[in-house]
Amino acid sequence: MSTAKSAETKSSSLGVRVASAVVLAPIVLGAVWVGGTAFLALLMIAGPLMALEWARLAEPEGSAVTEQIGLTIGLVVFLVTMATGDAGLAFVLLLTILGLTMAWCVWTDRPPSRTLIGFAYVGGAVVSFAWLRGDSDMGRLTIIWLLGVVWATDIGAYFVGRTFGGPKMAPRLSPNKTWSGLIGGMASAAIVSVAVFVWADVQSMTMSTGILVGLAVFAALVALLSQAGDIYESSMKRRAGVKDSGTIIPGHGGILDRVDGLMFAATFVALVVIGVHYLVGWMS
Q1: Could you tell me if residue 244 is left (phi over 0), alpha (psi between -120 and 50 degrees) or otherwise beta?
Q2: Exposure string (b/e) for 194-218, b if CB count within 10 Å is 16 or more?
Q3: Rounded to an integer, what is the distance from CA 147 to the centroid of its chain?
Q4: Phi, psi at residue 174, to the nearest 5°?
Q5: Distance (Å, whole) CA 178 – CA 182
Q6: What is the reported pTM?
Q7: For 213-268, what is each residue's pLDDT tens digit?
Q8: How far is CA 75 from the centre of its chain?
Q9: Contacts with 119 (C-beta within 8 Å, 6 or more apart), sequence order
Q10: Rounded Cα–Cα distance for residues 38 and 263 (Å)
Q11: How far is residue 164's CA from residue 179's CA, in Å, rounded to a whole number?
């Protein structure tokens, strides 16, 4: 009887997860495709919610809420200013609010290190997403590529890890992750990376083999960062003694539970793109 009940519960939980995905996926992908205000509005909703989830994981007793309110205000101000098309002013305002929040930490005799980590982790990812998407076709392709690579990493790691098993990557922090799964995830990310750009360039097919190989290698590095982000969030949940970062998404938990791999990956990709942009400009 208990076995039947357990199976029924699992089936119900899976149904809720699928229903949530069916509702949310078109909204997220639609905002990515349209870009502009629609994408910024998505970030404006998700960013502060992720900041509050991170605050609850970092300090379950709630003592970091004031600082995280500063972070959420900073994210919203940044995104609203980005919507006006003034990226420079947006970054200045974000840094100003960061400085004021740090001053608050010093005034109240609280160590600012944890708040800084929250700014870097959540704020860095949100700012990176906003900057990478921009309002161009290349920005749309970049976000689609990033989502495809991270999702391929998760799927590849899951199936390869379950099939081959083997030594655990971080048994204390994320007991289900294996080295074989990591390799499978990196390989899957490399394949999807090439597939996305071939699909995007399907009419001209001008991409050289060298460029495609470079994209595959870069995707493998992004996959590595994605898995690191997954493990980081798992360690935060274990430290806080909770199963999920939140309960906002039925059947899935919190927003961070669904985008943990994207957090590190988005920031890494944005930094690389900025670095390449300035390097090319310097060399020319």
Answers
A1: beta
A2: bebbeebeeeeeeeeeeebeebbeb
A3: 9
A4: -145, 85
A5: 6
A6: 0.83
A7: 888 999 999 999 999 988 888 888 888 788 888 777 766 678 888 888 899 999 99
A8: 15
A9: 71, 74, 98, 101
A10: 20
A11: 10
Residues of the chain with pLDDT under 50: 1-12, 14
Cβ atoms of 198 and 216 within 8 Å: the answer is: no
Sign of CA dihedral 187, 189, 195, 197: negative
218 near 168, Cβ under 8 Å?
A: no
What's the one-letter identity of residue 214? Answer: G
Residue 197 carries which side chain, given as an amino acid letter?
A: F
CA nearest neighbour of 264 among 181, 183, 168, 150: 150
Beta bridge partners of residue 82, listed in sequence order: none
- For residue 263, give the nearest of 221, 228, 227, 229 by alpha carbon: 229
Cα separation, 29 vs 4, whole angstroms: 37
Interatomic CA distance for residues 80 and 88, integer angstroms: 13
- Give 178's strand partners: 168
What's the sign of the alpha-carbon dihedral 258, 67, 81, 96? negative
Measure Cα distances from 250 to 20, 22, 147, 233, 253 in Å: 6, 12, 21, 19, 6
Evaluate whether 197 touches 212 at the Cβ level (below 8 Å).
yes
